[in-house]
């Protein structure tokens, strides 16, 4: 029998949130609007003005995280709380809020892991062309500098951009990515914006290493290995195509400072290669992540395009119905179960994804998200029983241990989410938290918190450093 290696002693067991989904107080204390505050709210779901009201409950929330024994808490900073216009004036109240959150974490020995940008572009910068404006590189680097100056004495783990790949592939679904009206070549515009993000990320990594020599920084894309639907060679090519477009583009750029050749060739075919400003090539080469942060929910599966995939600039994902013409066609994996919200569940694919990253990049890895969205309900005893989530998490944690045994260096596990919050486009009813929040999409309830069964179970997991699953 295979003997499993233990989890490292200093493994970061924790969980994640993002500012615009958890904080609420969306325009309070000087915070400027982000794209999330001005977007059209998806029908039948709550807006983002209150969320879990973490802005006013952070002490209680972090105390509950400490009760579960968290070693880390991954949260994001709202750019517009710090710089309401995206550039210019600093909002001291915003600095104060994150100082409080960070200090509260440290009080309990919880390592703050900070995401600099999680789907919430300042609305004022969207109006100036968003990531499509070449100046966006400097906007982001300036914002990064303010963060390092303000919090770098206490924050040792930084994440640059959350799920840049999802932003690029399905941005409009999550209320981000502005395409200027009248844009002729939408694909080129998208990948130009993506290019600016890559350069901005690289410069932010360089600046972090200069300003904070003891800190570590990495990207946080959503990485999922893509399987071929069959062993037909054409399907393998399709899987390689989607792997390149979905995953490797982002990590090749972050780690090796260059574009993935399959992606570059595809963009070239579509006259959509991004324009490099002078110095961009060097800037990409200069950035080096200390680790790879990544979100994992499920693998993808594709087959060769039989000519039925329609041309669409947003063809990246199953959610978007289909694939990319001539490159790949989405395929439902018949071997996998699905969540109540139709997401495939693939714990073994987690291990496969980690192995693949390990052999491509040879860097330590930090799981920044993973988790199960479900319709949790309060039971007759007043508690929240979520055995399905325990099952989901257990099976994924087992696979991390398999991957560690395979030789991968894993820094931590921070599933989505520490506390119930608003999902990207399916509202409050799609819950992920270890902590239940008493509110519904259109009824703000009491906002009372309680730890779900999964949270008490997770406490045992943490206490035993992953032995007691
Ligand atoms: C990730 C995002 O894509 O998945 C989170 O980083 C998001 O912001 C999470 O909430 C779950 O997705 P969803 O669509 O169910 O909220």
Characterize the structure shown.
The protein has a single domain, classed as Alpha-Beta Barrel (TIM Barrel), CATH 3.20.20.80. It has 15 helices and 16 strands. Strands 5-4-3-2-1-14-13-7 form an 8-stranded parallel beta sheet. A 4-stranded mixed beta sheet has the order 6-8-10-9, covered by helices on one side. Strand 9 and strand 10 form a beta hairpin. The longest helix has 26 residues. The mean pLDDT is 95. It binds 6-O-phosphono-beta-D-glucopyranose. The site of 6-O-phosphono-beta-D-glucopyranose has 15 residues, from loops. It holds the Pfam family Glyco_hydro_1. InterPro entries: GH, GH_1_N_CS, Glyco_hydro_1, Glyco_hydro_1_AS. GO terms for molecular function: beta-glucosidase activity. One of its GO terms (cellular component) is cytosol.
Helix content: 25-40%
Q: Indicate the low-confidence ranges by residue numbers.
A: none
Q: How is the main sheet built?
A: 8 strands, parallel
How many beta-strand runs? 16
Identify every distinct bound molecule in the structure, by name, code or SMILES. Answer: 6-O-phosphono-beta-D-glucopyranose
Query: Mean pLDDT across all residues, rounded?
Result: 95
- The computed structural class is alpha/beta
Strand percentage, roughly? 5-15%
CATH superfamily heading: Glycosidases
Distance between the termini: 19 Å
Q: Return Rg in Å.
A: 21 Å
Biggest sheet strand line-up: 5-4-3-2-1-14-13-7
CATH topology: TIM Barrel
CATH architectural grouping:
Alpha-Beta Barrel
Number of domains: 1
Separate helix tally: 15
Globular, elongated, flat, extended or rod-shaped: what is the shape? globular
Classified by CATH, the class is Alpha Beta
């Amino acid at each position: 029998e295979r003997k499993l290696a233990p989890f490292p002693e200093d493994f970061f067991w924790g969980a994640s949130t993002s500012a615009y989904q958890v904080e609420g107080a969306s325009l309070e204390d000087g915070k400027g609007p982000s794209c999330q505050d001005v977007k059209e709210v998806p029908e039948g779901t709550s807006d983002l003005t209150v969320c879990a009201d973490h802005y006013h409950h952070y002490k209680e929330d972090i105390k509950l995280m400490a009760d579960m024994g968290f070693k880390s808490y991954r949260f994001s900073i709202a750019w517009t709380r710090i710089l309401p216009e995206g550039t210019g004036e600093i909002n001291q109240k915003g600095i104060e809020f994150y100082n409080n959150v960070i200090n509260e974490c440290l009080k309990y020995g919880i390592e703050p892991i900070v995401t600099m940008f999680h789907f919430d572009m300042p609305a004022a910068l969207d109006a100036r062309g968003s990531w499509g404006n070449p100046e966006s590189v400097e906007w982001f680097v300036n914002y990064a500098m303010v963060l390092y100056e303000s919090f770098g004495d206490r924050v040792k783990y930084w994440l640059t951009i959350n799920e840049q790949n999802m932003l690029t592939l399905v941005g409009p679904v999550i209320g981000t990515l502005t395409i200027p009206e009248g844009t002729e070549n939408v694909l080129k515009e998208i990948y130009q914006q993506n290019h600016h993000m890559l350069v901005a990320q690289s410069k932010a990594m360089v600046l972090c290493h200069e300003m904070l020599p003891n800190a570590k920084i990495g990207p946080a894309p959503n990485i999922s290995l893509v399987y071929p639907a069959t062993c037909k060679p054409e399907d393998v090519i399709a899987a390689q195509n989607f792997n390149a477009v979905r995953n490797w583009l982002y990590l090749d750029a972050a780690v090796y400072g260059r574009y993935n050749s399959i992606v570059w060739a595809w963009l070239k075919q579509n006259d959509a290669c991004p324009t490099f400003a002078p110095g961009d090539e060097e800037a990409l080469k200069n950035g080096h992540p200390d680790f790879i942060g990544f979100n994992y929910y499920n693998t993808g599966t594709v087959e060769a395009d039989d000519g039925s995939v329609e041309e669409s600039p947003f063809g990246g994902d199953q959610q978007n119905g289909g694939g990319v013409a001539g490159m790949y066609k989405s395929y439902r994996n018949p071997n996998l179960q699905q969540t109540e919200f139709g997401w495939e569940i693939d714990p073994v694919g987690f291990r496969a994804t980690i192995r693949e990253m390990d052999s491509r990049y040879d860097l330590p890895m930090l799981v920044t998200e993973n988790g199960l969205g479900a319709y949790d309900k309060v039971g007759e005893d007043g508690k929240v029983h979520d055995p399905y989530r325990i099952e989901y998490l257990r099976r994924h944690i087992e696979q991390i241990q398999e991957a560690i045994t395979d030789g991968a260096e894993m820094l931590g596990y921070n599933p989505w989410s520490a506390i119930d919050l608003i999902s990207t486009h399916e509202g409050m009813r799609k819950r992920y938290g270890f902590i239940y929040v008493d509110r519904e999409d259109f009824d703000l309830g009491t906002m009372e918190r309680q730890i779900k069964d999964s949270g008490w179970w997770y406490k045992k997991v943490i206490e035993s450093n992953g032995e007691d699953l």
